[in-house]
Design a protein that fits this description.
10% of the residues lie in helices and 28% in strands. It has 130 residues and is mostly beta strands.
């Protein structure tokens, strides 16, 4: 997949086309997110973005069937810090044990405006977008 922004023009991107490692930007923010897990059917994707002050990543879950993204529906989430946590959350999403929050203050329409391909994590500055 190629970058989907050129200058100030922004084009919506289909969330089902996301793959592990893609870097994503949403319409409402300049923050970049990295796709950390996707479900086999393309319904769910878990993305994270570093939050360096607390050393805990922000996370968001895409639900392509509902066309929304947001946190999970648990008051105290189980964690999205490492690959093992994320794999556990994806299994819970697929099983229906958790879902994207339905609270209006947390859940927003998915509007992807830019996608960058995965970068080599060993390249200096590779995570600067992510």
């Amino acid at each position: 997949m190629r970058e989907m922004t050129t200058g100030s023009a922004r084009t919506a991107v289909d969330a089902t086309a996301l793959e592990m490692g893609h870097r994503v930007q949403f319409a409402e923010s300049r923050r970049w997110w990295r796709v950390r897990a996707t479900s086999g059917d393309g319904r769910f994707a878990i993305l994270t973005s570093p939050f360096n002050l607390r050393r805990v990543p922000y996370y968001t879950i895409l639900d392509t069937e509902r066309g929304v993204r947001g946190p999970d529906d648990r008051i105290f989430c189980s964690g999205y810090e490492d690959d093992s946590d994320i794999a556990d959350r994806m299994r819970e999403l697929i099983a229906g044990d958790i879902q994207v929050s339905r609270r209006p203050s947390k859940c927003v329409e998915t509007r992807i405006v830019a996608v960058l391909p995965p970068t080599d994590r060993h390249t200096p500055g590779a995570d600067s977008a992510g």
